[in-house]
Amino acid sequence: MVNTAIDFYRAPAGIVPATPAEPRANSAAATDRIDLRRLLAMFRRRVGVFLGVLLGVLAVGMVITALQPRTYQARAEVTLNSKLQPVAPTSTNDRSDQPAIPSESFVDTQVSVITSEANTAAVVDALGLARDPRFAPPAGDAKSAGAKPGSGQASARDAAIAYLGKNVSAQRIGTTYGIAITFESRDPQEAARIANAFAEQYTLGALENKRTGARDTTSVIATRLEQLRQQALADSAAVQRYRIAHNLLSTTQGTLTEQEISSYNQEVTAARAQASEDAARLEAAQRQLQAGGSGGVGEASLSPVIGQMRAQQAGLAAEFAALSSRYGPQHPEVLRSKAQLDAINRQIAAETQRVLASLEAKARVSQQRLSSLAGSLDASRGALAQNNAAQVGLDDLQKRAETSNALYESYLNRYKELTAREGTEQADADMLHRADVPRNPSSPHILINAVLALALGTGLGIAAAFLTEMTFTGLTTGEDIEERLGVRYLCAIPTLQSVAKRGERVPASALLEDPRSVFAESFRSLRASIAMNTTEARIIAITSALPEEGKTTTSICLARSMAAAGDRILLIDGDLRRQGVSRFLRGGEGRPGLMEVLHGTASLDDALVVDPATGLSILPLSADNTDRSELVTGEEMDRLLATARERFDAVIIDTAPVLPIADARLLLGKADASVFVVRWRKTPEQALRAALRLLPIDRVQLAGVALTRVDMRKQPRFDYGETAFYRSYESYYA
C-alpha cells in the first residue's frame, strides 16, 4: 500500500493520534529556485499595502511640492573670445604672433572666476544690494548694538554676498567656449536682473577693470619714469664731472691723451725714419768726398746747378782736348781753355761743399725733431698712466649711468606701449544671450517630483508589501498549515458573502436554502475529510486556539449538513462561557440543558432541542447555567457521551477555545476526533502552535485543521490548491 499524506495521520485500531506542531520542509524551497508565481501571488496579496504606501508617498510628495516655495531660474550666457586681435602692436614681432586659443583648464578656471567671491562682491556693489533691507542686520541684534558706524552696512554686504554665492551657478556649455550663468530666486525679476549683472560684470565689468588697471599702471609708470629720468641725468652728469676733474676728456675715438699718444707714436716713427735717412745720406756723401770724387757725390749730382756746370765742364774739357791736340800746351787758346776748365771745376767743388753743408744741417734738424717728439711722447705716456688710474672710478660711474639709462629706456618703452594701447583694450568675453524673466518656476518641478514620488512610492510600496508578507503570521492556505505546522489540512470554509449571489443571509440558514452552493459543499467536504482521516470517529470536537475564529458556526453548519443527509446527529454546546450554540436557538428559556443532564436533574430527552428543518438534536446550555466545569470534564460527561454514542450516528461538541480555557483540552480528550478551526489570514501561526503544543499526544486525537471565513474572491491570490481554481468551477454550484 502506498503511503500518502493522509496515512501520516492514521493510527491502528481506529485511533487518530495527535501530531506535534513541527513544520515540514518547504517543497518550493527544496527546488532551490525562485518561484515567480509565488512572488506574484505574494504581491497580489499585498496589493492593498502597496497601493496604500504608493498613494501615501504620492500624497506626501504633492503636499511637499505644494508647501515648497516657488523659485525661478534665469540663465544668461557669455562666450570667451578665442582670438583677441591686437590693435596697437608694440613691435614687429607682435604682428606675426597668433593669440593663444583658450585651453580646457582656462575655460574651467573662468567658470570658477564667475562665481568667485570677488566677482560676487562686485555684483553686489554694482546692484547696491548692501542697502537692501533684506540683508540688514536685525535691529535688536546684540552684536550690532555696540558695533562701530558702518559695520551694519558691511554686515549687510557680507549677507548679500553670501546670498548671491549660494544661489548663483556657472557651468560650461558642452565643449564650447560658452558659459551659462544661472541664478535662482523667488522673484523672477530679481533672478533675471542678477543673472544679467553677473554676465555684465564678467564681460563689461572685467573690461572696465582692465582699462582702470591699465590707467593705474600708466600713472604709476609715469611717476616712476620721471624718477628714473632724474636719476639717469644725475648719473650722466656725474660721469662728465669726473672726466673733467681727472682730464679724461674724450671723443668718439677715445680719450684725448690716447689720441695724442697715438699721433706722437706716428710722428716719432716718421721722424726717426727721416733722421736715419738724412744721416745715411750725409754719411754716404762724406765717404764719396773723402774718396776724391767731388763730382761724384750722389747728393751733388742731384743739384741742377751742378748739372749745368758739369755740362759746361764737359764742353770745356772737350774743347781743351781738341785745342791741345791741335796746338801745343803753350798756345794761348789752349791756356784760355784750360783756365775756363779750372774755373768750372772750382765752381763744381764749391757747390758740392754747399750741398754737403745742407745735408749736415738737415740731419741735425731731423735728429732734433726726433728728440723733441720722443720727449712729448714720454710726457703723454705719463699722463696716460695717471688717466688709467682714474679710469677705475670712471668705469664705476659709467656703469651706474648705463644702468640708469637702460632702466629709464625700458620704462620709457613700456610707457609708450601703454599710452599707445590705451583705449584699445578688448574684453575677454562677450555677452551671448541675456537672461529673460522666467515665466514658470524651476522649483518645485511638479513632474519631476511626481516621478520621484512615484518611483519612491513604488519602491517603498513593494518593500512594504513584501515586508508585510514576510512578517505576516496568519495562515492562508492548506499548504501553509501542512508545511509550517506539520498537521493535516481538512478543508476551507468560505465566507457566505464571498460566494452568495443574494443579499445578507445567516450561514446556518444558507446551508439549507442553497444546498448546492459552495458554502454547503465546504461542510460536506469537511465531513468527508474527517471520515477519511479517522476510523469510526463518532464523537467529533470542534475547537479553536482563540475566540472569534468561526468555531460555533462551523459546529452548527457541520451538524446541520450531516443531519440533512439523514444521519442522527447530536450537537452539544460545550462552551460554558460563550454558549454560542445555545444563542443560536431562539426561545427555550427555562428549558434544562447540558449541565442539568450532567447533574442528573433532567433527562437527556428533556434537554434536547430538535431542529425542525434537519432533525438535528441539540443539547444546549440553560440560561441559568452555573459554571461547573468539573461536570463537563468528569465521569458524568463520559457517561453522557457513551449514551449519545449508542443513540446517534455522530456527536459534535462545540468546545471552548484551547488557549484561554484549560477545560477545553480535557473535553477534547473525550472525543474520537478533534478538529481545529483557524480563521483565514487572522489567526496567528504562533497561537495555533501554542494550542497544539498544549495538547497531549496520547490523549487527544487530532483529525486536522480547517480554514474558516475564507474569502473565495481573494483566495486565488494566495493559493494554488483546491480553492485557487474557484472561478473555474464556480458555475458548477449554480
Automatic annotation (TrEMBL):
Membrane-traversing stretches: 47-67
Record-annotated AAA domain positions: 538-667
Pfam family for this entry, one: AAA_31
Class in the EC hierarchy, top level: transferase
EC number of this enzyme: 2.7.10.2
Domain of life: Bacteria
InterPro entries noted in UniProt: AAA_dom, Bact_polysacc_biosynth/exp, LPS_length_determ_N, P-loop_NTPase, Wzc-like_C
Membrane topology, as annotated: Multi-pass membrane protein
Record family assignment: Belongs to the etk/wzc family.
Official protein name in the record: non-specific protein-tyrosine kinase
Lineage of source species: Bacteria, Pseudomonadati, Pseudomonadota, Alphaproteobacteria, Sphingomonadales
